[in-house]
Amino acid sequence: MSSQTDSPSLAWDGTRSVYSTLAALFAYGVRAKNALVYSSAYLVFIAGVEVATTMIALSLPLSPAPLVIALLTFAVYVGDRIADAEADAATSPERAAFVTRYRRLFSIGTAAAYGLAVALSILGGPTALAIALIPGAFWILYASDWLPSLGRYFSRLKEILVVNSAVVALAWAVCVVCLPLAYADRAFTPTAAVIFGYFFLDTFVNTEIPNLRDREGDAANGVSTLPVVFGVRRTRHVLYALDLCLVAGIALAFYAGVLDAAMTVGILVGLAYALCLAWFVGRTERYGRLAIAGEAKHLLVVAVVVVLGAVGF
Predict the structure, then answer these.
(1) How many domains does the chain have?
(2) Is residue 257 part of a domain?
(3) For the segment 46-85, what is each residue's pLDDT rounded down to a tens digit?
(4) Any transmembrane segments, and where (predicted)?
(5) In angstroms, what CA-CA distances link 242 with 57, 80, 86, 193?
(6) How many of the other CB atoms lie within 10 Å of CB of 153?
(7) Cα distance between residue 118 and residue 129, in whole Å
(8) CB burial readout 119-136, b (16+ within 10 A) else e
(9) 281 forms bridges with which residues in the sheet?
C-alpha cells in the first residue's frame, strides 16, 4: 500500500523536476537571445558569411578575412550600442538596460576584439591593416561631435539624412570586399565592383529598417533618417526602388559575363526575399525582427550559391 501511495508523489516530483529543467533552459535561452540581439553580436556570424560570399564570387583563397571582419563587427556595433545607450533608452529601453548592465564587460570585449582584428590584419600586409582601421575611424566620424561648423542641426554625421546610412554602408562594403582582396593580393576587378555595389546598397537598406522602429526617438534627438523625413510609406517605396536597382544591376552584370550563374541566382533569390521583407514596412511594428530577417538574407544567399555550386550549376 505504501508503494502505491508514494507512486503518484514520485510521478509528480519527476514531472516537476522536468518542468523546472525546461523552465531553466528556456530562461537561459532568453538570456542568450537577448545577448545576441541587444548587443548585435548575431551580426558577427552574418559578417563572416558576407566575406565568404565575396571570396566565393571572386574565387579568392582561404584567409583570416572572415574572422577579422567578424571581430571588427563585434567591436564597432557593440561599441555603438554602448555609446548610444542613453539615447536608446527612449526607443529601445530593454536593449539600453541590457547594454548598461553589462557595459564594463562589453567595453572590455570590444577593445579585445578590435585589438585582435588589427593584429590579424597585419598578416595581410599594410593594405589589410589600413582597411581594418577603417571601421574604427568611420565610427568616430559617424558618432562623434566633430563638425561644429555645421551648426546645431547637423552636429554629427549620424544626424544627416542619407549620409548617416551611407557612411555605414560604405565602411561595410569596403571591408567586406577589399579586405579579402588585400589578403589574396588581388586587384579590384569589375566583379569586385559589382559585389561592392551590392553590399553598399544592401547595407544601406538594412540600416534604414531599424530606423523605422527608432523614428520617434530619432526625431526627438534631431537625427534625420528616411522614416523621420519622408514617413513610413515613402520609406517603403525607397527600399523597393533600391532593391529593384540591385536586381537590375545584378542581371546586367550576369549578361555582361561579370558574375557567374550560381552567384547571380543566389543574390537574386536574396533580393526577392528582401523585397518581400520591404512589403512589411508600414504593415508591422516588429521592426527589430524585420531588421534581423533582413540581415539573415545573406545566409540564404550563400546557401543557394553553395548548393548550386555543389550540383555543378
Answers:
(1) 1
(2) yes
(3) 999 999 999 999 999 999 999 999 999 998 888 877 877 7
(4) 35-58, 64-83, 104-123, 129-148, 160-182, 188-205, 238-256, 262-282, 294-312
(5) 22, 26, 32, 17
(6) 9
(7) 6
(8) ebbeebeeebbebbebbb
(9) 284
